[in-house]
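so my prof wants the structure for this chain in the tokens format not the other one, which i didnt know existed until like an hour ago. anyway here's the sequence
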Amino acid sequence: MRMDKRGKAKWRRVGEELTALRQRKGLKQAQLAPDINVVPAHISAWEHGKRGMTEDQALRLDQALDANGRFHRVWKNANAPKQLPEWYERVPGIERKVSELREYQCLLFPGLIQTPDYARVAIQDASPWTSPAEVARMVESRMQRQEILYKEHPPLVSMVVEASVLNRVMGDRTVMAGQLDSLLALVEEGRLRFQSMPSEPQRHPGSAGPFCVYTFPDAPALASAEYAGGEMLMDDLEKVQQRMTIFGFLQADALSLDATVELVRTIRKSIDE
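here's what i got, hopefully its the right format
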């Protein structure tokens, strides 16, 4: 039976998680297959997103991989009656493979570094028609993306964000305090390079809006641009290179890392006053 794009997308999401957990466990497909009572080709089809699996199979895989419920949760999220938007399924798979990620944001803290409270407010504000259950799934998906920051060999992450984002209160002051504290911790731990764009620059290379550039160790780079309905991925080499150039201009015009940290600390202190 021919499956639609949405069905294949959820299979890919589950398959990517299966591959990551199997490799973390140090197992080959042929070693895992007997525990699930399938042939190795079946494992391969799952990992490549070519077929779905039953909940019983997901539970048995979770147990065989010592995933402590994680794989089963991924399966349940993928098979929930109302799926996440397609870009929520595609972006995490891309981010897990990058060696370098560069992002410019002019409206919000990038999703990759949002706290759960900040993410919940941002999603609710942007999609007031979204049900609480859907919001919860989207927040969980956004938090799972952050696992790449804590890998043994994490990607090099560089971000340039408008100063107005740092000052804009999302939700309430408690939410913002938590977000700023989390940002400072990530920077101080060396998990990302974060720079703020001055409020009134003489010129602004980022006027076209938010975007990301993804660089891979063994594949051509990709770029994505945000729009009201999600994200548009670009693999055209010229367009990707243009975003790389723009990001370089943004970094050059932004405050230094140290100056940005001082600015964040000043804003954070003002919240307590």
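also thought this was worth mentioning. Residues 5-25 form the longest helix (21 residues).
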